[in-house]
Amino acid sequence: MRYAFFPGCVSRGGAPELYQSTIAVAGRIGIELEEIEGWSCTGAGALQESNPLLGDTLNARNFALAQRMGLSIMTICSTCQGVMAQARVRLEDEEYRAQINELLAEEDLEYTGGIQVKHMLWIMVEDIGLDHIKSLAVKSLDGVFLAPFYGCYIVRPSAALEYDAYPQRKIALELVIEALGATAVDNDGKTRCCGFPILTINERNSLAMVAKHTGEAQDLGADAMVTPCPLCHLNLDGFQSKAARQVGRQINVPILHLPQLIGAALGLDGPALGLNRHIVSSFDVALKMGLRV
User: Fold this and answer.
1) Which residues have C-beta within 8 Å of that of residue 257, sequence separation ≥ 6?
2) DSSP bridge pairs for 257
3) H or E stretch at 38
4) Residue 110 in contact with residue 66, Cβ under 8 Å?
5) Does residue 84 contact residue 61 with C-beta atoms inside 8 Å?
6) Cβ distance 235 to 194 under 8 Å?
7) ∠ CA 227-232-238 to the nearest 5 degrees?
8) How many CB atoms are closer than 10 A to CB 27?
9) CB 145 within 8 A of CB 186
10) CA angle centred on 186, ends 118 and 292, rounded to 5°
């Protein structure tokens, strides 16, 4: 399976281990990635609040670049997935799309509509298939307890994300965790905001959300949390110790990116998956998964 790869800004900046682990895993599970040359930020929802036309133009440009490649898009960022899905819906309006294509014409680009954009998580379930994932695993993660954490943008708004057509998307992360032999630890926070969007304007509340989610996962016995969203990873991993101090308790929950989990079952070692780049040490969960660290 071949996709136009849209890595997103965070995997190329604040969380490079996500990019690294994605590349390490993709070929092994039968995904051929061709990175979109010249891709730009989706606007991450923030730009859309102040200038929706510019936000949609950026996304239409990325869509047009992928269409030029003749490929559907794969992303590894929940925020990018959500923002692109909403833009995709708006750009189905032919009159609006024509307005934006006038702007894209400066680069000799045109978006014709109908692009398919899928997060790697959905591709694992819908295109690769859980049985195939199981067949590729060289080690079982039996006895490892993992709390799923989706983040906002890959669950809302459900209409733009086509949840009616693909109802398994509601539990896709749990399905992958269980397919790899680990136990999914259900938790109330898994589809709630991690607090990242308000970090710079209301740090206290953002840290309270980090403490609530990571503390809940720890109390439920999770060895780690797993997220398909690099922005959630930044907040839950990078600010966990500060959040713990704010609420006056010990919290120590490693946060794994989705491809790091997959790579562990495929037999890749910790350094290859970038597990040594996390703020909260993943040493104990890596050992429990049988990885060389």
Assistant:
1) 15, 17, 18, 21, 226, 227, 228, 230, 233
2) 227
3) none
4) no
5) no
6) yes
7) 110
8) 10
9) no
10) 75
Predicted TM-score (pTM) of the model is 0.95
At how many degrees (to 10) do helices 230-238 and 240-247 cross? 50
Residue type, 149: F
Collapse the DSSP code of 146 into the 3-class scheme (helix H, G, I; strand E, B; otherwise coil) and give the result: strand
pLDDT tens, 43-74?
A: 988 888 889 999 999 999 999 999 999 999 99
| Per-residue model confidence as pLDDT tens digits over 1-17 | 999 999 999 999 999 99
Coil, strand or helix at 140: coil
Which structure tokens are listed for 218? 């720890």
How many C-beta atoms surround the C-beta of residue 12 within 10 A? 14
End-to-end CA distance of the chain: 31
Rounded CA Rg of the chain: 19
